[in-house]
Amino acid sequence: MWESLLMLSALGSLPFISASPLEVRQDSPSMSMSVTTIFGPPTHSFHTSQPHTPFSGTPSTTGALTATSIGKGITEAASIAPAETTYHGDGKLHNPEPAPYVPAGGVGTNGSIPVYNAKSDFDYESLALALYQEWIELDLFNDGLRRFSAEDFTAAGLNQADRELIAFMAQQEVGHATLISNMLGAQAPQQCQYNYPYTNVREYLDFCQKLTRFGESGVYGFLSHLNSREAATLLTQSITTEARQQMIFRQFEGLFPMPVWFEVGVPQSWAWTLLAPYISSCPSNQTRLVWQNFPGLTILNQPSLFTGGNSSNATASAMNNTLGAGTNVAKFSSGSGSDSSGVNGTYGSLVTPQNYTRLSFPGRQVALQWDNPGQLVGPNNSYVTSTSAGSPKYVAWVSQLNVTYTPLNVSGNRGSTIQPDMETYEGDPAINGTMFIAITDSNPFLTPFNISMINPHVVAGPALYQAG
Ligand SMILES: *[C@@H]1O[C@H](CO)[C@@H](O)[C@H](O)[C@H]1NC(C)=O
Ligand SMILES: *[C@@H]1O[C@H](CO)[C@@H](O)[C@H](O)[C@H]1NC(C)=O
Ligand SMILES: *[C@@H]1O[C@H](CO)[C@@H](O)[C@H](O)[C@H]1NC(C)=O
Ligand SMILES: *[C@@H]1O[C@H](CO)[C@@H](O)[C@H](O)[C@H]1NC(C)=O
Ligand SMILES: *[C@@H]1O[C@H](CO)[C@@H](O)[C@H](O)[C@H]1NC(C)=O
Ligand SMILES: *[C@@H]1O[C@H](CO)[C@@H](O)[C@H](O)[C@H]1NC(C)=O
Ligand SMILES: *[C@@H]1O[C@H](CO)[C@@H](O)[C@H](O)[C@H]1NC(C)=O
Ligand SMILES: *[C@@H]1O[C@H](CO)[C@@H](O)[C@H](O)[C@H]1NC(C)=O
Ligand SMILES: *[C@@H]1O[C@H](CO)[C@@H](O)[C@H](O)[C@H]1NC(C)=O
Ligand SMILES: *[C@@H]1O[C@H](CO)[C@@H](O)[C@H](O)[C@H]1NC(C)=O
Ligand SMILES: *[C@@H]1O[C@H](CO)[C@@H](O)[C@H](O)[C@H]1NC(C)=O
Ligand SMILES: *[C@@H]1O[C@H](CO)[C@@H](O)[C@H](O)[C@H]1NC(C)=O
């Protein structure tokens, strides 16, 4: 193995014969050992120097994609389908084996030929949403490297190898965007132009950490609901990479890398609500999405390393420590809070902190403000925020495997609630990490596989709450 790797690198200096994708090339027989080289198929084309400015024109179309008819809504079944509970899990085999060592059952296990495409509107719209996400990540990872200098990164505790890692993440996004574009076909959404809120490296890292959180969780929300198991397989193999990116950005920021036992999944419309505000415009023939944009939700006292951590001082209603609704990226100025402790030990990759700062705690008061529906958002300001919920009554805390609710103390478009104390499993506090909250009109019981049933009850949000 080592020898062939070494030989490959030695060959790297030889002129390459131009080769078509997937061509298998045998090297000169005069060499003591031949190396099989397989070139990858081409990647989708992409821009690297788009402007990053807000959209100022007039949209040529407005509103989410809709079908010819829209039903009245989805209601929970009266009972569990009997077939769901007939298998007897006693550790014995209950059916003949199709082959030695092969248990009966499974889907796509009988020799059928896998086809890696969308097989329903649900599949297409979910994959298209994921593609919008991959495109913004490709642009975002490059944008920070272009916008901030090496010195700026050094001051935030990141060295050249760290910057190279971010550049590599951008390359990973080229692969992800290509993969999903190929599965969707000719009308796959194209790369757009974006507009970001951050003004310095610390805010950039916080933005990346939060954007990759909803990118990852947005996919977990629909992955196992796809008709196309084939597409789900490839998407899983992309999103696990994104999960690693999210964790690395948390570490770059000085946060505990993975403070939860389970990564949460959220509905597509939640991911689209969080993503759309950063897309300024898309090409004129862009394929549009069906998903809902909910009204924006701002956390007025977002927990943040920049304000010293474990911020109990939540009552101050005049606070506004984020760059805006949705992602709620913490504002950072060089004078901010605990920053004087510097790069040696509290953030950046230079060292792992000896002690991580606790950011929030059960009993913390959280101050919120939300927008009215009817605002123009997203590419070319061509989507409109909406809600079908009644009046605001609860804050939904969506984290790990759980959705829990706390009462909302409402005053106009502002309100406050108290951070709950709940475990997912014994010894695993559910409220931690980069998680989701939303304002709801009721408190339906939801589990990871039916979490999208929350959508008709969302008044505003989601917002990303930095619990830890
Ligand atoms: C495999 O099973 C599917 C149903 O899950 C069926 O439609 C298909 O015909 C089967 N293929 C083969 C090769 O038996
Ligand atoms: C938009 O037009 C471009 C250029 O003709 C084409 O490559 C692309 O596939 C089109 N996109 C959609 C979504 O139709
Ligand atoms: C989150 O988890 C980390 C790591 O276990 C812990 O240090 C921190 O106190 C937790 N935060 C909260 C809010 O529970
Ligand atoms: C969105 O705006 C861009 C830039 O002004 C323009 O080229 C494009 O045609 C617009 N797209 C739509 C769908 O209006
Ligand atoms: C965080 O602050 C709360 C309220 O002031 C306090 O009760 C708690 O002990 C603090 N936790 C840590 C880990 O400092
Ligand atoms: C909360 O903030 C107010 C005003 O900034 C300050 O006077 C007070 O000391 C703070 N309380 C705590 C517990 O930090
Ligand atoms: C918070 O401040 C930002 C500017 O830093 C502003 O854009 C935003 O509207 C403010 N939010 C609230 C709720 O006041
Ligand atoms: C971090 O450590 C380096 C080397 O010990 C030192 O030169 C630098 O001044 C320190 N920076 C801060 C902000 O303490
Ligand atoms: C980390 O926490 C431990 C236990 O609370 C304490 O003994 C130690 O001094 C702390 N280290 C630093 C660098 O703050
Ligand atoms: C509810 O909010 C009001 C101010 O909007 C405040 O005076 C009151 O104490 C709050 N009540 C609770 C239970 O937090
Ligand atoms: C949280 O999720 C776990 C795992 O599904 C479940 O066992 C537990 O009952 C849930 N807790 C609450 C409060 O819903
Ligand atoms: C979601 O699923 C759980 C079972 O896991 C069920 O008890 C609950 O009623 C469902 N919620 C809705 C709104 O359908």
From TrEMBL:
PANTHER family xref list: PROTEIN RDS1 (PTHR38705)
InterPro entries to which the protein is assigned, alphabetical: Rds1
Keyword Repeat: no
Organism: Penicillium cinerascens
Domain of life where this protein originates: Eukaryota
Keywords recorded for this protein, A-Z: Signal
Annotated signal peptide: 1-19
Name of the protein described by the UniProt record: Protein rds1
